[in-house]
Amino acid sequence: MTYMMKDSRTIPSVLTAFFCARSIERISDRSQNICEFIFYYLKGQDFRHLSGDFVEKMLTKGGH
After folding, report:
1. Are 47 and 36 within 8 A, CB to CB?
2. CA distances (Å), 51 to each of 6, 10, 14, 22, 45, in order?
3. Per-residue tens of pLDDT for the chain, all 64 residues
4. Is the pTM of this model over 0.70?
5. Distances from the Cα of 16 to the Cαs of 11, 12, 20, 21, 24, in angstroms?
6. Within 10 Å of residue 6's Cβ, how many Cβ atoms?
7. So where are the chain's domains?
């Protein structure tokens, strides 16, 4: 914000960077949702309710 106030010519560039960052965040959120759906489809368990240790063991042992 201070950067834009010092030089108003930077506003378009800063806004472009902001909107790009926001779009990347949305892409990552949607990608996470897809991964959680695939995990649920394959394992029948809700990924969000599993402990980190359990998930790590499943991923390192191939999920068996």
Report:
1. yes
2. 48, 45, 39, 29, 12
3. 676 777 888 889 989 999 999 999 999 999 999 998 998 898 888 877 788 787 788 778 765 5
4. no
5. 9, 6, 6, 9, 12
6. 9
7. 2-60
